[in-house]
Write a structure and sequence with these properties.
By secondary structure, this protein is α+β, with helices and mostly antiparallel strands. It has helices spanning 2-13, 54-61, 90-93, 97-108, 118-127, 130-133, 138-150, 194-197, 206-220, 224-237, 244-254; strands at 16-20, 27-33, 39-45, 69-73, 78-82, 158-161, 169-171, 177-179, 184-187. The longest helix has 15 residues, at 206-220.
Length: 255
């Protein structure tokens, strides 16, 4: 089905398709070339709450530290993107990957008008998401208490990528590193560090996670306790999946 849809979009946009990238949670992604030979990427998104405004975020960033959006078809959930070459993940190709992420974050903190707010997302976690279905436990109680304390007391809301980790930043030619796969929200800056604190690719230990939290907050001028609290909340809300055991360890280290 994905291949058939990709072929149809390619005909409409006059693209030549190449090899697909390995399948992942983001959708079906395939190398492409424009009619003039410009390399690109065609992405067919899986319909998912967290990335339904991906194209809007890429348009708002306009290539400033992030991959450029070249074209979109919202009805078919199709995005034509700038291709990152060589495309090496930040986790594998930088001497100081955390420094790269620290440099990237302020560039992404654009005006968030029109995006779903973190308060709205937090309410969904409590009412319909994983927190709503999680059995009563000290872990759930802690996350719920923090969420109810933090959501209504946020500072300035900016556009954040709530899944910005070291494998969602790729080596490129236009800039050394470009951010991909946004899951955008309008949120305070402290929330933006949550996926980086638990960025397993950068080292998975109590020491690694706490060092990331400390350095992110110190260098970006963030409130450490709010950043720690939001990391606990989002990690608990995203607890399921193949990395659940590792996420539980992060929660132990931060509590």
């Amino acid at each position: 089905m994905s291949e058939t849809l990709a072929a149809a979009v390619a005909r409409d946009w006059e693209l030549r398709l190449g090899d697909p990238y390995p399948r992942g949670a983001a959708g079906y992604v395939v190398r492409a070339e424009l009619a003039d030979g410009t390399p690109a990427v065609l992405k067919l998104q899986h319909s998912h709450r967290e990335d339904e405004h991906e194209a809007d975020a890429l348009e708002r960033w306009a290539g400033d530290g992030a991959v450029r959006l070249l074209r979109r078809d919202d009805e078919r959930h199709a995005l034509l993107l700038e291709r990152c070459e060589p495309g090496t993940p930040l986790s594998e190709g930088a001497g100081d990957p955390l420094g790269v992420l620290i440099g990237s974050l302020p560039r992404l903190w654009k005006d968030a008008t029109g995006f779903r707010t973190l308060a709205e997302e937090a309410a969904w976690w409590l009412e319909e998401g994983d927190l709503a279905h999680m059995p009563e436990s000290p872990r759930r109680n802690e996350a719920t208490s923090l969420l109810r304390e933090l959501a209504p007391t946020q500072g300035e809301l900016v556009l954040v990528h709530q899944d910005l980790h070291a494998d969602n930043v790729l080596a490129a030619e236009r800039e050394p590193w470009l951010v991909i796969d946004p899951k955008p929200l309008a949120a305070e800056r402290e929330f933006a560090v949550a996926p980086i604190v638990r960025s397993f690719e950068l080292g998975h230990s109590r020491r690694d996670a706490l060092l990331r939290l400390d350095r992110l907050c110190a260098e970006l001028g963030l409130d450490r306790e709010r950043a720690r609290g939001w990391t606990i909340v989002q990690t608990t809300a995203w607890l399921g999946g193949e990395r659940e055991a590792m996420r539980r360890e992060v929660l132990e280290w931060l509590s």
